Amino acid sequence: MLDVNKIRGDFPIYHSDRLFVYLDSASTTQKPQVVIDAVSGYYSAYAANIHRALYEIGDRATDAYEQVRIKVKQFLNVPETHSVIFTKSTTESLNLVAYAWGLKNLCQHDAVLVSEMEHHSNLVPWQLIAEKMGASLKFIPLSDNGTLNISHIDALISSNTKLVSIGHQSNVFGTVNPVKEIIAAAKNVGAVTVLDGAQAVPHMTVDITDLDCDFYAFSGHKMVGPTGVGVLIGRTELLEAMDPFMGGGEMINTVTMEKSTWNDVPWKFEAGTPNIAQVIGLGAAIDYLQSVGMNAIHDQEQSLLNYGLDVLSQVKGLTLYGNADDRGAVIPFNVDNVHTHDLAKFLDTDGICIRAGHHCAQPIMDHLGISATARASFYLYNDKNDIDLLAESIEKTARIFN
After folding, report:
1. DSSP three-state, residue 262
2. What are the φ/ψ torsions at residue 29 (nearest 5 degrees)?
3. Are β-strands 161-167 and 192-196 bridged in parallel, bridged antiparallel, or unpaired?
4. What's the rounded Cα separation, in Å, for the pair 56 and 345?
5. Domain coordinates of the chain in residue numbers?
6. 85 beta partners
7. What is the DSSP secondary-structure string of 127-157?
8. pLDDT tens across 59-80, in order?
9. Which one of the listed residues 107, 213, 353, 360 is annotated catalytic?
10. Catalytic residue at 360?
11. Which CATH fold topology does 35-290 show?
12. pTM given for the model
């Protein structure tokens, strides 16, 4: 088990004497001092634009920015450094694929396959593109236990399926989807594959080469990094064939009044001044997670998940959702006669932070026949005492409302 007290010492938000139980890491994570220092260090010591400045701090900023591309490659075993594109979020990464690939490759009678489990970021862009291009949108059905029903996957993926886009791990249930099986079925018909890895990369060892997907997206802020930075990893030959997502500086090779030509991948997709400080902060976050150890983080979370399920299942009037065999440390639940928003506000008075709402996954709520759930999600700075305090506060709140 991790030394949680030592880890909390790395995070300034835990330095206060007040009780602070943060159980919303599936939404965003707290930041260690080394990440904060990396961001502020850029702004205070070598703030300059990258790739174009012909002076020392510009070179330093460029080197720091491009080194993070190498760190991502090594962290996730990406085949090529130039396959790593920096965006502002997972959402932007998925939209980049939807527009830059979809507008050029989808047409009438084509089909895009997603699942009923998707975060809105991996559903709405495909709705927009499918409607625009006259393509159809199909869905892998959700089972009541919070898993995908892939028993008929070969029937869902047909010769007219051009793209399959699936969440690696659910932000609602924590379910780790059988993505390798889905990718294999997609490859049998020549379909392009996309994985939303926002909930996976922070919590498990991810090997892009082993997954063999065509695109993979994730965010920095869910892995102790800054907000405002995301990553899209793409198969180089697909990226080279795609048109730019945005036009502007840096993404060009030559420009005349009549036409332009494009820069090489990945810079073709990084128009304008990027979020330099945030990318540098992402590099520090990767270093930090590797220093702790991804396997150690995963083991800690699995211990917390099992303990949390056991403790919360004993709370009177509490309903748990999802029961996948392979799942991350995310627990959605409701409490009888207590609205999720009320529950979250009452827990906050005890210094406990949880998520309440539809979690940007309204189709899941529709499937469950509810409007919202409360959600507790754990990370490397949580321990079993946090779960005990959560259960105690839930029981106290339930007594008030009942």
Report:
1. strand
2. -110, 160
3. parallel
4. 50
5. 4-30+293-401, 35-290
6. 232
7. HHHHHHHT-EEEEEPBPTTSSB--TTHHHHS
8. 999 999 999 999 999 999 999 9
9. 360
10. yes
11. Aspartate Aminotransferase; domain 2 (3.40.640)
12. 0.97
